[in-house]
Amino acid sequence: MLRLMTTAIVMVLSAYNADSQTLRPSFSKFPAAVEKAQARSVNFKNDAAARSFHTRLSEAFRGGVNFAGHYIVAGWGCGTGCISGAIIDARNGKVLWPLEFNALGVWYDGSNYVDKPVEYRRNSRLVIIRGSPGVKDNEREFPNGEYFYEWTGRDLRFVKFIPYRSN
Questions:
Q1: What is the domain count for the chain?
Q2: Domain assignment of residue 30, given as a range
Q3: Segment 7-48, tens digit of pLDDT
Q4: Could you tell me if residue 68 is left (phi over 0), alpha (psi between -120 and 50 degrees) or otherwise beta?
Q5: Which residues of the chain form beta strands (DSSP E)?
Q6: pTM
Q7: Region for residue 79 given its phi and psi (left: phi exceeds 0; alpha: psi -120 to 50; beta: otherwise)
Q8: CA–CA separation, 134 vs 104, rounded Å?
Q9: What is the H or E stretch that residue 108 is in?
Q10: Stretch 152-161: mean pLDDT, rounded?
């Protein structure tokens, strides 16, 4: 149900956002105080999915906080033009799995992929996905564009969509 509502919102706002591309959400509008990580490691104990990505999650954790004050974004490739990822809470090592990070499609303009398909800051709760956010199996993909989300501490809340124009 939530996914259907998000799809409807994206479609309705597409027309509006096409005229307001200069009104992009900025990282500074979603501030987060940066903390030092307290967990000793990623919590793999009760998360089979996390155990499947042990190496990638552990490497990201060692890199330290890189998102929203006390979180760590971890990512890995899942094929050509595909990225998957997770968010680790550095306070307790718990791995969070936003659906938008599940096999998201990277924008390709016919000759190149975008330089930053997923952009975030350690002192901001804003995430930008350039391409198409991840979907559950057998769901229709979202249109390509820039998707702006706010991290709530549990999931990504849709903020804005700016479609890419076809040449």
A1: 1
A2: 2-19+26-163
A3: 454 554 444 444 445 599 999 999 999 998 689 999 999 999
A4: left
A5: 71-77, 82-89, 95-96, 104-106, 118-119, 126-132, 145-151, 156-163
A6: 0.83
A7: left
A8: 4
A9: none
A10: 97
